[in-house]
Amino acid sequence: MYKYLSIAVLLLGASMGVSAVAQDNPDSPDSGTITRVGTTAAQFLKLGVGARAISLGGAYVAEASDMSAVYWNPAGFARLRGSHVQLSNTRYLADINYNFAAFGTSIDRVGSMGLALLMVDSGDMPVRTEMQPEGTGEQFNVVSFALQVTYARDLSDQFSIGGSLKFIQERVWHSKASSVAFDVGTLFTTPFKGLRLGASMSNLGPKLRMDGRDILFSEDPSPNTEGTAEIINAQYRMDSFSMPLIFRVGLAWDAVDTGTHRVLITTDAAHPNDNAEYVNAGVEYSFRDLVAFRGGYRNLFEPDTEQGLTAGGSLIVRINRDLAAQFDYAYADFGRLTQTHWFTFNLSF
């Protein structure tokens, strides 16, 4: 047991070291007194997935017991048995369509393997210019997605590890930026009854830079001078932006577990590379693993946050011994930005 605990501590330390290097880089906008907010690309990777996790305030790194584990903590995926499907939809802020789909299965003596797709779509919007503020008649949209493969394995009854490799792309009209990133996580069941410790590091990868025909233009470099080239083909110089690296560590505790009644308490601390640290917390009551009610709070101690209260519940329908369907709902308050509603369907077989 102590061997696996030592491995967990080493992985946690390595993750913290990577996060610290990202902050201490003197060439980074994180240094000095410059705020880190808005300094990374692929912000959709920070939204979270799964109605259960959202209703628990996003405090899910040590619980991670459904297919959304591939997002929060890949190590939790190792503890799922059989095959699982998860489909999730959210009408996010500003009518952005946000979807998540995942499939995973466990293989004896090999581990658990899964495939997941996360996608956001702004829908069609009118193209506006300085000279035509009401629109040019053209339409554009913004589509971002992450396609990932995940592998996780139990090293013992107490200790699990997992990792994901994902391909990430952001597209705005005719321009796009693509990259790859890695996630890694650990999950440890402590000697204390019902207490679990989890940690994960997400979105470790190279920077993203937009490229495409939208940044191309033709210009006369010297409109007031004769005898020079009238038109020069050129393009805007685009900056590169880092991934939204996030380090999470958390606890999950079964405060009550009688078989009929279960009370789960979870808490996470998160350290992003583009904002201040914050804390999430949640509580869940479930009855006979048939119905559950949840509440939580997100982004505690983060300056100027609009996120806060979350709530939700679930209904589990057991079709037979090996087949079960679960329907989850979550409400998340965004203050002056109103609220979002999350819907998730899970199938286990």
Description:
This protein has 349 residues and is mainly β. The chain contains three helices and 21 strands. The protein has helices spanning 2-24, 51-55, 69-72; strands at 83-91, 97-107, 111-121, 125-126, 139-140, 142-154, 159-172, 175-189, 195-204, 208-209, 211-212, 216-219, 232-235, 240-241, 246-257, 261-272, 278-287, 291-300, 309-318, 324-333, 339-348. The strands form four sheets. Strands 1-2-3-6-7-8-9-15-16-17-18-19-20-21 form a 14-stranded antiparallel barrel. A hairpin with a 3-residue loop joins strand 2 (97-107) and strand 3 (111-121). It starts with a helix and ends with a strand. The relative contact order is 0.18.
Summary?
The chain has 3 helices and 21 strands. With 349 residues, it is mostly beta strands.
Indicate the low-confidence ranges by residue numbers.
4-31
H and E order: HHHEEEEEEEEEEEEEEEEEEEEE
Strand percentage lies at over 45%
Distance between the termini: 31 Å
Helical residue percent band: under 10%
* Major beta-sheet overview: 14 strands, antiparallel, barrel
Give the averaged pLDDT, no decimals.
Answer: 89
Q: Would you report the number of β strands?
A: 21
What is the number of helices?
3
Radius of gyration: 23 Å
- The chain-level structural class is mainly beta
Order of neighbouring strands in the sheet with most strands: 1-2-3-6-7-8-9-15-16-17-18-19-20-21
The general outline is elongated
